[in-house]
Amino acid sequence: MACTFLISCRRDPIFNLYKTQNVFIVVMDGARYSETWGDSTHQYIPRMANDLLPQGVVYTNFYTAGPTYTSAGHTAITTGNYQEINNAGAELPQNPSLLQYWLKATKKDATAAWIIASKGKLAVLADCIEPTWSGKFNPSTNCGVGGLGVASPYRDDSATFEKSKELLSLYHPQIVLINFREPDYSGHQNNWLNYTKGISDIDEYIYQLWNFIESDPIYSGNTTLFVTNDHGRHLDTVSVGFSGHGDDCEGCRHINLFACGPDFKKNLVVNDQRELIDIPATIAELFSVHFFPGKGKVMTELFE
Q1: Is the pTM of this model over 0.90?
Q2: Between β-strands 254-260 and 4-5, what pairing exists: parallel, antiparallel or unpaired?
Q3: Domains along the chain?
């Protein structure tokens, strides 16, 4: 692999082994694996299965090994650690996030990294309680109705998608997490039609986001995308079925991972078992943030 120094006014002068200069993480909140890649027909994710898979990698054995609810799952993605955390947005993560580590390393301002979410409570991901990091190197946030944060009501995913495009066009951040509240929102209402429609809608948003990336002169050719879930849902034979989640059943733990980017293999189905905290470990490798202390492992099988 060619080694390059990133020396433009926009890119930081850190030694980087990879082509990736930007990373997007899209979280489809609370979808079961059985309605995404676990369904052989891929009826709810036709864009990822037909249009994006030829450009990337999908995992058949991807799991969360931590608490199976929204705030805990997102905390695992950003910090590389599993923890029990208040699920209403009333508690900050214990550990600093990869976004904080990256902002400190690159000395970039907060607009270079974003948390964008349909759920306002996820604004807590921007900070932590660890004393030496609390209130420092925090990424920007736009979460909930009006982008107001923790106390804000949820907003529709369509609004989050439009806001994401607006912020990406305005700031061109290099590391972004985007949360779409469906299908978790409709799943809790026991509304199967809206639950599956939410999966399909997000599948389309992901496809449009990738087209935006590939058509943008700053992002094209140097951007990596991860698509995952924060948790799954109960199996139909467990508790209240798909309307609930939060335990150790296969439905709650088995989740989706799709990844594509300039440093990754293409059109590949991987059966290796991996877990949620391996995402930030792999991003830290892509960004050469080798001092990131998350507990995940780099998914080396992804790389060309």
Answers
A1: yes
A2: unpaired
A3: 21-302 (3.40.720.10)
